[in-house]
Amino acid sequence: MQTLEIIKNVHWVGALNATLRVFDVVFQTRFGSTYNSYLILADKPTLIDCVHEKFAQEHLEKLRSLINLNDICYIVVNHAEMDHTGALDMLLKEAPNAQILATRTAALFLKNILHRDVQGRMVEDGETISLGNKQLRFIHAPYWHWPDTMFTYLAEDRVLFPCDGFATHFCDERLFDDRVDDFTEDFRYYFEHVMGPYRKKILEAIEKIKDMDIRLIAPSHGPILRTDPWKYIHAYKDWSTARKDPYKKLILVFYASMYGNTRKMAEAVAKGATTVNTEVKLFDATTVSPESMRCEIESADGILMGSSTINGDALKPLWDILNVMFSVNVKLKKCATFGAYGWSGEATRLLEERLRGLKLTIVQPPIKALLTPTAEDLKKCSIFGYDFAASLTASPAR
Ligand SMILES: Cc1cc2nc3c(=O)[nH]c(=O)nc-3n(C[C@H](O)[C@H](O)[C@H](O)COP(=O)(O)O)c2cc1C
């Protein structure tokens, strides 16, 4: 595919990768992805974002079809991740007059990516620069999804370039949201997996752009959003806003159980944890999809995990839930573990170790029951749940 003029004098010069099936090792890209890069043909020609190293040559050719590379004045690096900067080294050699514009953090990251000094300068939050007949404004948006990120706004044309914000791993050369196939599910997937851990930061940056006049969003991956850009911004806002009862602490109890022993413990724990100040949700980890638990985990104040021991380990469904937690903001949430066992009982300790590794705070030692829990064991489980709830309600709501 060649270049595409997305609005007058703004050209898409990115790359398509239709066969990509996984991104950053862990994110699924079932319909491939695109690396979007945009050339603004203003008095001072400016490139917004670059592409993956693999597409460096193709990117140069696209640029050359539109401009003499010596004429590029600025290259805006909204975010330094290598899928947008991999081709930068080669481009800078061919475009010797280009100055890099980036946040302080992105400039620092670039130094450690390129390992050489480059021309350019840092831009402040809210700063504008003139391209002659057009103006660019920079809006810092840290943790969308790296600490270095900013958005760039092309004022005259009312175009927002938010880099990975509002992006989708979805390759369709028709490019515009009104022309490509339905990408709703993939847009949500990208949000949950890439932006999900930073919901607070999402809301902070949306607050900064909420009064801006935006007619088109040109992200760094996937479709260009022109039909109703605010629909996508509102979706991000909606997905980032906690939906739990603000007056109650939310506790999630996940368990897996082969013969119902840990299940009985989980039910007693959940019962004990249910107080006037808490809302408790009990999940059999063998029947829920871990992915569907993302929002619940994000909203929770406390997480209890129960597993019996199997071959010296915890049951896999619990590991699957923990696996999702790595891309959710769980830092400092409170947690504890429980489970039935036969002789060695490693499961609770192993779960604790992983929870600690994910930076949750373990508030009390595990509770274990030998083989089949007795009435006395279940009573202890109930107290265990109550104590856990008490540890949460002693601290202010998150
Ligand atoms: C296949 C299998 C492997 C087990 N391995 C262990 C083990 O390594 N250590 C241990 O303490 N108990 C082990 N147990 C015992 C269970 O943890 C115990 O029966 C427990 O009560 C099961 O609780 P549940 O019904 O909640 O799964 C094993 C049980 C099974 C069926």
Main features:
alpha/beta; Rossmann fold; seven-stranded mixed beta sheet; six-stranded parallel beta sheet; 24 strands; binds flavin mononucleotide; metal ion binding
The hetero molecules present are:
flavin mononucleotide
Number of helices: 12
Can you tell me the CATH superfamily of the largest domain?
Ribonuclease Z/Hydroxyacylglutathione hydrolase-like
- Describe the biggest sheet? 7 strands, mixed
How would you characterize this protein structure?
The protein is of the alpha/beta class and 398 residues long. The chain has 2 domains: 4-240, Ribonuclease Z/Hydroxyacylglutathione hydrolase-like (Metallo-beta-lactamase, Chain A, 4-Layer Sandwich); 249-389, Rossmann fold (3-Layer(aba) Sandwich), CATH 3.40.50. It is 31% helix and 23% strand. The chain has 12 helices and 24 strands. A 7-stranded mixed β-sheet has the order 1-2-7-8-9-10-11. Helix 4 (104-114) links the parallel strand 10 (99-102) and strand 11. The protein is elongated. The mean pLDDT is 95. Bound molecules: flavin mononucleotide. Residues 257-262, 308-312, 340-345, 371 line the site of flavin mononucleotide. The site of flavin mononucleotide has 18 residues, from helix 8, strand 20 and strand 22. One of its GO terms (molecular function) is electron transfer activity.
